[in-house]
Amino acid sequence: MAKKIKDPGIGLSSDKLAKRFISSDGSFNIKHINRRTSISRSYDYLISISWLKFFCWVFLGYVFVNSVFAIIYVSIGISAITVPTGSLFGDFLKAFFFSAQTVTTVGYGAMAPKGVVFGVISSIEALVGLLSFSFITGLLYGRFSKPKSSIRFSKRMVLREHNGNDCIMFRLMSRSTNVMIRPKAEVTLALSQQTEGAKYVNNFYNLKLERSQITYLPTTWTIVHPITETSPLAEFKREDLSKLHGEVLILISYYDESFTQEVHQVHSYVLNDIKIDEAFVPAFHYDDEGFTVLDHDKISETKVYNSEK
Length: 309
Known about the structure:
Elements: E1 4-5, E2 13-14, H1 42-48, H2 51-76, H3 88-103, H4 116-145, E3 151-153, E4 158-162, E5 165-174, E6 180-194, E7 200-206, E8 216-217, E9 220-226, E10 246-256, E11 261-270, E12 275-276, E13 278-280, E14 284-286, E15 292-294, E16 302-304
Parallel strand pairs: 4-12
Antiparallel strand pairs: 1-7, 2-7, 3-5, 4-5, 5-9, 6-7, 6-8, 6-10, 10-11, 13-16, 14-15
Helix pairs in contact: 1-4, 2-3
């Protein structure tokens, strides 16, 4: 009988409608409510969001700062900067363009502040601009230097016979051309099961792998869990696996040459996504010159498995 292990950090309580713990993109399916936020945490947010969102925030911040100072200039009197247009919107545009020149310290020379008040305000804006661009530069460096794993997983697991046993398999590869050094895998099965009191609890089992670590990974790695008598899945029939409220939790760690440190990535599969009696097709072949050609589009491609061959 399979031996349960301690909670890996997800919690023992469950529910009939509980969703998977880890989504397909590697993030945890957790909704935070009543969470206190602070300005200091904005750095973590801006480092982790996508590039599109990041540049949208930069653009919105740029427009906001220039708009605020443009309103100040118009309120005081734009005549101290340039000749008024006679239109509020026209004056705002001129003040906005002057603010953009000031905050970026470009200073084309067509408009210049006159008087002490405008001089003080434009000086403050120049300081705000220097600090803002320094902050953005730090964010750009942080986004490029932050260690990020580049692992790509197969879309589904497969179940087929291998070495005399039914085995659950999934495949992974590197998205980049860098070779993963000493990649290792930790795989945990989480089963949400109903107790006698009609409550649902999570039970966790360590899935023993055929190989949990390799030296390096230049192509693909198919991770195999043999369903032997010690496996937590041994008590279930293969057609019943898809009916279980279970999830396979995966942690992959390896040394990345680009960041010169160990990086990690989490992933998961739900049991009802298993393809039975299918096998992964080879994702690489050799060309006429003897080079290994790795096809990234074949990471999830499978075919019907015939055990007689």
